[in-house]
Amino acid sequence: MKGRVDLHTHSNASDGTCTPAEVVRAAAAAGLAGLSLTDHDTLDGIAEARAESEAAGVRWMTGIELSTHWGELSSVHLLGYCVDEVRDTALLAACAQLRGSRRERGAAMVEKLNRAGVDLRMQEIEAEAGRAAIGRPHVARALVAGGWAASLPEAFDLWLVPGRPGYVAQENLETGAAVELLRACGAVPVLAHPQALRLEPGGLDAMVRALAAHGLCGIEAYWSQQDAPAVALCEVLAQRYDLIATGGSDFHGENKPNRIGEAAGGLKLDLGLMDALEAAVTR
Ligand code: AMP
Ligand code: FE
Ligand code: FE
Ligand code: ZN
Fold first, then answer.
1. Is 170 in the pocket of ligand 1 (CB under 6 A)?
2. Who's near 113: CB < 8 A, 6+ residues apart?
3. Residue 185: its pLDDT value, please?
């Protein structure tokens, strides 16, 4: 059997708690043969993780997870594989713009929370974010640190989800445009964690069909939190629209319980999947 791989992980370059090098070392310690770091809307962790992968003997694939919207659906995540953190200037420009709008949104969340009686300052959010672009997980950590919630899930439920006092929508790319942006770089776009979209099977089918017309190359059938019926549906859609079925843990360090290397359909996630994704590169 070929070695196991994990193609969906996060470091503290976005909203994970491990450094990029620590993610690689965790992958090596878990016995993984291949890894992709897929931080949200940034390539900042790539150079460090690639260097560590070479040292650790773990096969490397450069990745990103773009936050997009599809009509009214506001958090459609798109994985991009085989991106280039130096040459893909259009992608880097999009990331830089998102980083700026995330800062503004962070300030807007603080303002809304202040109005709701929560005494929290932007500096506390920035301290939680460190090098990363500001996201709700950083606000959640600051809320827990300040005693405004007992846990990260509670911080989301009480303050940070739609309808709650601290929620502010994040501006981002339209999903079809993001697919095309990645393809224009020569990279490989994959629809992340389809079950998290909470669509009816017919709705997911229609969305995947439309995205395939934009150039979608894969669907994350083997996401760690996806149940058996959702995996089966993704496999059907992969067949129907000629997409690569990918997977990964969505490891976030201490910000989520997901363990590195653990995904649905684990036996299917081997080095052959990395070969298939690399074969779809057009640069
Ligand atoms: P943002 O892009 O700033 O809106 O933050 C989205 C991130 O927050 C996701 O990628 C998850 O890592 C995390 N997240 C979203 N909803 C929850 C929740 N209910 N509990 C814990 N983490 C969440
Ligand atoms: Fe995340
Ligand atoms: Fe995601
Ligand atoms: Zn993710």
1. yes
2. 120, 139, 143, 159, 165, 166
3. 97
Percent with pLDDT over 70 in the chain = 99
CATH topology of domain 5-94+175-279: TIM Barrel (3.20.20)
Which ligand has an atom closest to residue 256 CA? 1
Which DSSP category does 39 fall into? -
Give residues with Cβ within 8 angstroms of 91, minimum separation 6.
43, 64, 80, 83, 181, 182, 185, 187
67 CB less than 6 Å from ligand 1?
yes
pLDDT digits (tens, 9 = 90+) for 206-220: 999 999 999 999 999
Classified as helix, coil or strand, 158 is helix
**Does the domain at residues 101-160 carry the CATH identifier 1.10.150?**
yes
Q: Where in the chain is the domain with CATH 1.10.150?
A: 101-160
Quote the tokens at residue 89: 């200037």
pLDDT at 95: 97
